[in-house]
Q: What sequence folds into this?
């Protein structure tokens, strides 16, 4: 089939609200096949427009904190306020199987069946240069499909959480209260990139929830804030009873208020520059390691570095001694 | 002159303790000239050995916190304990002029004139991929020259501080007490990578120093720690009177104690892997942007990205469409 023709067909369907077209686009973006990538780039070419009015919200927290039920609860509230909600999951451990999609539907049974909502897992590729490069494009695609609220859910593995903060306008950290003098499973660096903190399952043990809220509030007071004109709130929410969800919604609406529009635009500009730099590095490395001989040599040199046998700069120098990079003056 | 011959000569001089050879090696490492780089790599080839017994200490803090006087004070104490101390400065704003070296000598008048110490500024190159890639090699060179304690000083600009944490075994954050309910100028993300916090100029205003110490201790208690078996101490020190320097020294000795040796080795292994990945990305990007046509196009595409005109992945795809990467099967 003619690539250009099929790209324009898919875009038209995407804009008209076709679920099938949306799923197809997201699959193309995640694909590693050359023809899929080519089509994906063509589609992206027609999607990149000014979407500064959309809300991009990230959600993270330790396993068991109840991210899915929280997102379902908040998602339903956002729908009730007239927003169109797409949920993308960044899950480094997931595999693209039928089971994973089924699993996702079971996880958000209410939200995934709403006409104005879309729930999809987006497997993150384990690439040099950070988690889920395809998630950036998936956001753009969802916005082109008319969704004005994109929620990115992350599972609590590795460095992916802080990477997700760089994908969104507002980053919400979910935390679990602990019976001890501590808050469960908060990862290094997360607190400082959070725009809001929500203690989930607030219906379970009220006194430890309150103690955890006080601890977190205290810690945040002496921590540099992500945004100068925004004081990071610590909220409590029960996704089961719905208690506290209204406060979380108010906080989200306030964060996306008109008075903060300029700062939001600035944050997105900065993010886009960062994305470009990372994508450039990741793509070049991907091209190189696509060649078996280079990949084996790269792994061998990296291992020698880690073992302390050779200095990193020397290892890289040797490795790149075999690489020849040329630049065409004009593309045909 | 024959490259191999001059490399072996310099290495011999370096090992025999020649200052001139050390300065020469550090200059070669920082040089961007191809023949200097080639010689630098040859020297590095002979330097990379097991230096797990050395102490690599990073020092950061806001401008005016007194990093130089603190390092001079601590450096003199370390000399008195029989250690050989090299001080490298990561200064993104410095220029390699005679003035910079002179400026540095004036800054640490005591330490720089000691026979067992070496003080040198090491200008950080503004490269994609992080601050001061040459500092990594400078550490290796100083260790080959027989220095067993390397202190890396950073000026408080941009992201360089957290990068420095990745260069060292122990990262010390210097802080200034403030008259308000706050501690001055602590940057985002720094607290969480600090292995020790020192409030400087503790002789000036004792009550605000004590209040700041309490605030920082409180903040650290609810912050994930850099190392699981190490509780980050908050100390007070006056570089003027020397008060508190002994406590700082004890803390350093305890951090480098035998019981923590295994963890230190693990941290270095991890760092070397990170260095390799970053050096690989940075070096490839450097090779590409060395070509004017590519650099201009890269800047143009990045600008389009930042403006929201084109998605980052698409911009990178277009940009790399003109790049041809080939890999030689065997180096000659």
A:
């Amino acid at each position: 089939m003619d690539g250009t023709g099929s790209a324009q067909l898919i875009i038209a369907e995407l804009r008209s609200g076709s679920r099938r077209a949306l799923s197809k686009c997201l699959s193309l973006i995640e694909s590693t096949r050359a023809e899929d990538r080519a089509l994906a780039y063509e589609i992206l070419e027609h999607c990149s427009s000014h979407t500064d009015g959309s809300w991009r919200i990230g959600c993270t927290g330790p396993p068991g904190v109840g991210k899915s039920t929280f997102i379902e609860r908040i998602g339903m509230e956002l729908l009730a306020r007239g927003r169109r909600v797409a949920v993308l999951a960044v899950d480094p451990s997931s595999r693209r199987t039928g089971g994973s999609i089924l699993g996702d539907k079971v996880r958000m049974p209410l939200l995934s069946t709403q006409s104005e909502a879309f729930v999809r897992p987006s497997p993150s590729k384990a690439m040099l240069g950070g988690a889920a490069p395809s998630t950036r494009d998936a956001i753009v695609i969802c916005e082109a499909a008319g969704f004005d609220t994109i929620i990115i859910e992350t599972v609590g593995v590795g460095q992916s959480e802080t990477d997700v903060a760089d994908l969104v306008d507002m980053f919400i950290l979910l935390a679990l209260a602990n019976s001890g003098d501590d808050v469960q499973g908060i990862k290094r660096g997360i607190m400082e990139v959070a725009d809001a903190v929500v203690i989930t399952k607030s219906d379970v043990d009220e006194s430890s929830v309150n103690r955890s809220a006080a601890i977190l509030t205290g810690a945040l007071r002496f921590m540099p804030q992500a945004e100068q004109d925004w004081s990071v709130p610590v909220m409590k929410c029960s996704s089961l009873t719905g208690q506290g969800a209204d406060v979380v919604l108010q906080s989200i609406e306030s964060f996306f208020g008109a008075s903060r529009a300029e700062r939001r635009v600035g944050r997105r500009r900065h993010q886009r520059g960062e994305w470009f730099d990372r994508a450039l590095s990741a793509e070049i490395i991907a091209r190189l390691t696509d060649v078996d001989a280079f990949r084996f040599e790269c792994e061998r040199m990296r291992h020698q570095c880690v073992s302390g046998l050779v200095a990193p700069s020397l290892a890289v120098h040797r490795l790149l001694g075999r690489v020849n990079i040329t630049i065409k003056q004009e593309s045909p």
